[in-house]
Amino acid sequence: MEYFLITSILVCLAAVFGFINVKFLKLPNSIGLMLITILFSLGVIALSAIDDTLLNAEKYIINSIDFQTVLLDIMLSFLLFAGALHTNFEQLRIQRWPVLVFSTIGVIVSTFLVGTIIYLILQLIPLSVDYIYCLLFGALISPTDPIAVLGILKKAGAPKKLEAKIVGESLFNDGVGVVIFLTIYKIASSSSGDVGVGQVLKLFGMEVIGGVAIGLVLGYLTYRLMRSIDDYDIEVIITLAAVMGGTAIAHHFHFSAPLAMVTAGLIVGNDTVRSSTMSKITETYVDKFWELIDILLNTILFVLIGMEMLVLTVEGDYIIAGLIAIPVVLLCRYASLLVPIQFFSRKLDFVPNTNLIMTWGGLRGGISIALALSLTAEMHRELFLMITYFVVVFSILVQGLTVGKVIEKLGVSKQ
């Protein structure tokens, strides 16, 4: 009953805040919801000087939710499937090689750049933090968040071929980023620090290759089942079963559930598969169902992100580190994309200022916060959680609000 009550409170808050945003602020939902929740939480903190009842109730809700499990193990699979289902498959196919490089090599390069620079900066503040823990922060902050990107980029007016790069990269690099994070986490947690190349490759193979393989099988089975009937009710349930069953199987075998859901969603959402599988009414119901799931979970997620500020440890040095980390993360992303973009721009038709737009449009979100929450006290959890929160809030509120204006200012028209 307690979980039902907490869920009910979150949905009610999301509905009220969503109404306020649509009625008055008229911002993109993810930005508006998080902004209103942060302002609400700050108001509750100010009110606690007189009466701390509401503050204690909000803290109780946040402390009762395992944000890492809720997002990474449950919500993420639904959100990624919904996002992949509506992704332009043809543009993604054309841009497949740059997307692959951005989401793998780009994330690895960014991880080491961010980790190294943050390590040097923390020594100057001074905060004594081991290099391996700074690499952990680099791994959790480097992947762009598909949930934040998909919600905001739709309204930014980006050209289709550029949108395919940013969305495609964000769909895949979170799975790769989680694998990199887990690998470094395992090294950091090892008392001897001795984790061989073979173990790293095994972990990568199980997570990435296994996840994509399950996604291919799930996508094909879903396609065959939907093709053999014409009943929109059951076909919607089949897609839901694919996500829930596929996630459970991936977790059981320690494969990447996010990559499995992205792969399955791309197959089911492919225009060729749609035309041979779904009737018009089925296609409408499937799309509307997953659109509703996407909106509902997104609203709850960004309300949760806003409320997470109540569990932060506020210290002067942590705030300084968080403020410095914002430009560092942006510069490292720009640098990590520089060589791949120059290489592929000779072979593919890239729009002008692709690197700048991908840097400013590469938003961070709930995935980074969830990974930061999984750190142990020895790994300086409170410090890196504060830094992560600064980067995520700036990313969504500032970058998210201005990415459309940046695209317009650079003269990149929608194509």
Report on this model:
This protein is mostly helical. About 80% of the residues lie in helices and about 0% in strands. It has 19 helices and no strands. Helix 9 runs antiparallel to helix 10. The radius of gyration is 21 Å and the shape is globular. The N and C termini lie far apart (about 50 Å). The mean pLDDT is about 90.
Kindly estimate the percentage of residues that lie in beta strands according to DSSP: under 5%
The number of strands is 0
Q: Please bin the fraction of helical residues.
A: over 70%
Oligomer: single chain
Protein traits:
single chain, 415 residues, mainly alpha
Summary of the model, kept short:
This protein is mostly helical and 415 residues long. The chain has helices at residues 2-25, 29-47, 53-64, 67-85, 89-94, 96-103, 105-124, 131-141, 146-153, 160-189, 197-227, 232-252, 257-269, 271-277, 280-307, 316-344, 354-361, 366-373, 381-409. α2 (29-47) crosses α19 and α6 runs antiparallel to α16.
Please describe the topology of this protein:
Layout: H1 2-25, H2 29-47, H3 53-64, H4 67-85, H5 89-94, H6 96-103, H7 105-124, H8 131-141, H9 146-153, H10 160-189, H11 197-227, H12 232-252, H13 257-269, H14 271-277, H15 280-307, H16 316-344, H17 354-361, H18 366-373, H19 381-409
